[in-house]
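Quick start: load a record and inspect it. Here is L,D-TPase catalytic domain-containing protein:
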Amino acid sequence: MRAMIAALVLALMPALLHAEAAQILPGALALGPEPPAAEAPLPDERILAAATAGVAVLMHEATKAVIEVRVSISKQMMEVRHRGELVYEWPVSTARKGKITPLGSFRPQWLSRNHKSSLYNNAPMPHSIFYSGNYAIHGTDQEAKLGRPASAGCVRLSRANAKILFAMVVEEGKDRMRVDIVD
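Running the structure step on this input writes:
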């Protein structure tokens, strides 16, 4: 699907760059008034521009986050939204004193169902969703510490909750998830 969209966009790119094509759908795109009749695009240019606008919408929808995770460091909580609806609120553990959990907005880079830490004595990190280098959202065997800072920087969840989130990401695709970590 992505390859087909990319090929279509490349084929339609000249119309995107053509000044008249940008005014073909003024109501829908709010790009300006209809050109004078003498300068009006030909019917095939209108079709091309309409298709181009459709491709832009499809590309946006294909990369739009349908899983939105918000981690609050101050509250030690995670909110999970699926297609805009709040579906889960879970306690987490983020970085303990002297360590950091990076703030910002991230996209998952890779997933690992049964990861073992290469930095911390092969510590189990089940259902890992790596979002920034070695930083991941993952399950923990130290569930009693959830709700307060305890990690070396990762976002820890209960094993059950990490499994749920991991399954959501596998189903929707990692490119359809966004992780926001805030103070």
